[in-house]
Design brief:
The complex is a heterodimer of chains A (291) and B (279). Chain A is 76% helix and 1% strand. Chain A is mainly α and 291 residues long. Chain A has 2 domains: 41 residues; 244 residues, MetI-like fold (Orthogonal Bundle), CATH 1.10.3720.10. The longest helix of chain A is centred in the first third of the chain and has 37 residues. The mean pLDDT of chain A is 90. Chain B starts with a helix and ends with a strand. Chain B has 279 residues and is an alpha/beta fold. In chain B, 38% of the residues lie in helices and 23% in strands. Classes of the chains: A mainly alpha (291), B alpha/beta (279). Chains A and B meet through strand 1 and helix 5 of A and helix 3, helix 4, helix 6, strand 7 and helix 7 of B.
Chain lengths: 291, 279
């Protein structure tokens, strides 16, 4: 009997270990593949020309593979989305965690989850027919297909991540902290602002970082509403082209094994590095909170 | 966009029953998004007559189709540009001989908002606008308004054709040109924006946009993009559409190619707003 149990034990342990390692192996393989294809670009281009070049003309003769406008485009859209979604998301999380009565709390929570379930292509479509014409008429710009349209749509995609993780962080603030504040005569607002928020700060920062990670990697909605013009971004009300949209839009037509093909993989590496950095930052804050 | 999604859904619905059908001849066609509707129409009509043959059409772009042909994952590739030397070399290396057919012509319409007062453009003016040298509608006889230039993405065969034939002298699209992911996206933006100008295959024209007649130079008359003018060769921007087969067509593929070039197949070309090659 014990032998059979031992075998069972061993079998399950192996299966679970394999499942655990599977995702890490997948990430490793993806990164290896990106690196293998992407670095081939640098046989003909220098890293400086690639990262700091201002001309993205991949199919011209001679081609231009400068992704600086694309990097700035991605950053601009992300920054805009962060400015919109962070205050809204945190305020929403505070309301859900601290203020709302239980019934409304449940409704709001499922509402936020529902927002996360909307496919990005649907948000992009809604953006094209509502947000884009609205921006054009309200801000009197030549076209509504701008970085701001992308930020606006992406803010709603980042919200569910920010809200649910920030709410979690607020929820896990020990009850004694609040009771202490109330005992000293603090109002509800004073308690939230001076006690609960600082106590949950690292968790909230993690929520924000994960939200930003989601925004940086988003492709479809951004491609539909930002106009994708590869010039150096002049402001939030001008069209921009993001890194993700570039890969998605150009991969279909590129000649396999060409410099253009390799440059799209190199963009993939850049994106990988950016999201990795963002997630690492979030991770650092999550661990700080646990200590 | 919606059109594309509908096409994809129809594609899936068509594939589903085939999975359960008995083992008949099947043809995989992949490639140009411009040609998806046309190709689908050919396939539907052909399958009505030859129920034993199953044809699956997918888009993805001309490059995707040619790459699939080279890698052996499709039997026919639709392409709105000619195969590149590099691709042909790669194909030969893998033992695939791509045979070229030109079953239809596409006229490329230059479109603006119906309220735009500009009634015609010369090719030089068009090139100037898309290269970013002409920035205001005033310079070509319109209102004092900044021109919003709309182009297809670089994955589009139409983009490549426009760059090579309209911008040939000046070379590059203006970096400020908006690159939109589909013809439908350009149609939508043009119908909403009075300052916009864009281009796409004649098939996407509707009453919400105005096709701007084009003149070869200052002395030539301006010609609107109609089937007759494209066949006569008067309209300055039209291009052949290509189908590539893996080796000389045989069996079901040959029957399908014959159908495409038959009177009926060419009628379908006109019906889907492309220009037939044979009467």
């Amino acid at each position: 009997m014990p032998v059979r149990y031992k075998l069972k034990e061993f079998l399950f342990e192996t299966i679970i270990r394999a499942s655990g390692l599977a995702s890490i192996i997948a990430v490793g393989l993806i990164f290896f593949f990106l690196l293998k294809e992407g670095t081939l670009l640098f046989q003909t281009q220098t890293l400086g020309d690639f990262l700091l070049g201002k001309k993205w003309y991949p199919i011209s003769e001679p081609p231009g593979f400068g992704i600086l406008p694309l990097i700035l485009g991605s950053l601009l859209v992300t920054l805009g989305a962060a400015i919109i979604s962070i205050p809204l998301g945190i305020a929403c999380a505070v309301y859900i965690a601290e203020v709302a009565p239980p019934r409304i709390k449940e409704i709001l929570k499922s509402g936020v989850e529902l927002l996360a379930a909307i496919p990005s292509v649907v948000l992009g479509f809604i953006g094209i027919v509502t947000v884009v014409p609205w921006i054009k008429s309200t801000f009197d710009v030549p076209t509504g297909l701008t970085a701001f349209a992308g930020s606006f749509i992406l803010a709603f995609m980042a919200m569910p991540t920010v809200v649910s993780i920030a709410e979690d962080a607020l929820h896990s603030v020990p009850k004694i902290y609040k009771e202490g504040a109330y005992a000293l005569g603090a109002t509800q607002w004073q308690t939230i602002y001076r006690v609960v928020l600082p106590a949950a700060a690292s968790g909230i920062v993690a929520a924000v970082m994960l939200g930003i990670g989601r925004v940086v990697g988003e492709t479809m909605a951004v491609m539909m509403v930002t106009g994708n013009s590869a010039s150096m971004p002049k402001g939030i009300f001008y069209p921009v082209r993001t890194l993700t949209a570039t890969v998605a839009a150009e991969m279909g037509e590129t000649v396999q094994g060409s410099d253009h093909y390799f440059s799209l993989f190199a963009i993939g590496i850049v994106l990988f590095v950016i999201t990795f950095a963002v997630n690492m930052t979030a991770d650092v804050f999550i661990h700080r909170r646990r200590k | 966009m919606t059109k594309k999604i509908i096409v994809i859904i129809i594609g899936i619905l068509l594939v589903a029953p085939a999975v359960f059908a008995k083992d008949d001849a099947s043809i995989q066609v992949k490639g140009s998004d411009t040609m998806v509707n046309l190709s689908q129409a050919w396939a539907e009509e052909f399958m009505k007559k030859n129920p034993e043959v199953f044809i699956a059409i997918t888009g993805g772009g001309s490059g995707t189709g040619i790459a699939a042909l080279i890698n052996g994952t499709c039997d026919m590739a639709n392409s709105s540009r000619q195969i590149k030397d590099k691709e042909r070399a790669l194909a030969e290396k893998k033992g695939v001989h791509a045979v070229e057919f030109k079953p239809a012509i596409d006229g490329i319409a230059v479109v603006a908002h119906p309220k735009n007062p500009v009634s015609q453009l010369t090719m030089d003016e068009l090139a100037g606008i898309f290269a970013g040298k002409i920035r205001n509608w005033k310079e070509v006889g319109g209102k004092d308004e900044k021109i919003v230039v709309l182009s297809r993405e670089v994955n589009s065969g139409t983009h490549v054709y426009f760059k090579e034939h309209v911008l040939a002298g000046t070379g590059e699209f203006s970096p400020e040109a908006l690159l939109l992911p589909s013809s439908q996206a350009i149609a939508d933006e043009v119908s909403q924006n009075e300052a916009a100008i864009g281009y796409y295959g004649m098939g996407y024209l509707s009453s919400a946009q105005k096709a701007v007649p084009l003149a070869k130079d200052e002395h030539s008359p301006a010609v609107a993009p109609t089937t007759d003018r494209v066949i006569a060769g008067d309209y300055p921007i039209s291009r052949p559409l290509y189908v590539y087969t893996k080796g000389e067509p045989q069996g079901a593929v040959k029957a399908f190619m014959d159908f495409i070039f038959s009177k009926e197949g060419q009628e379908i070309v006109s019906k889907t707003d492309f220009v037939p090659v044979a009467a």
